[in-house]
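Posting this for the archive.
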Amino acid sequence: MKLDVALKEWAIVCDFLAQGRCALLLRKGGIHEAGGPGRFVLNHDRFLMFPAWEHERLDWIKPEWLPPGIDLAVDEPEKSEPTQITFNCYAEAARIWQVPSREAFDQLDDLHPWARPQIDMRFNYKPERPLYLLALRAYRMSPAVVVPNLDVFAGCVSWVPLGDSGALDASASSPAMAEDEFHSVLSRVERAFAS
């Protein structure tokens, strides 16, 4: 299976997906979206996960989710883009919901890595724009695929066409999260958002 488009997400969250630690992403959309600023559209149902460092804040990740040995007083995300991008997983979009309220989302606290300041920012930034929750079935790629980081990949966008890098082979991959655990996540979201 070849994939030629990627969804940008904080690098650490891409790692969580590849490790099977989470299956959810929050989206309001980037600045330069096809549907207009902040209007996230699920343009693809299968895509690579593009690890991004722009806007990444390790202090907005719950401490218990951080890798051992991270010291927030010392360790900071990359300040500049790396010369190469490592793709270690791809995902299939299983569901997308518009988040009905903060109260509904807070029922899912144990299912995601984001600390309260990140959640506050997502809800408070341009509150007239909808906030979306995506359930992603992630697949760990083995081996990971490394490509040069091209200038065309830069910017505050959700979707990154790989263009000159060509389609990447993701056929040697395995589910990051057990199927029953993934379906449990979907059920939890459905219940929380139905009330």
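The CA atoms of residues 72 and 179 lie 34 Å apart. The chain is about 20% helix and 30% strand.
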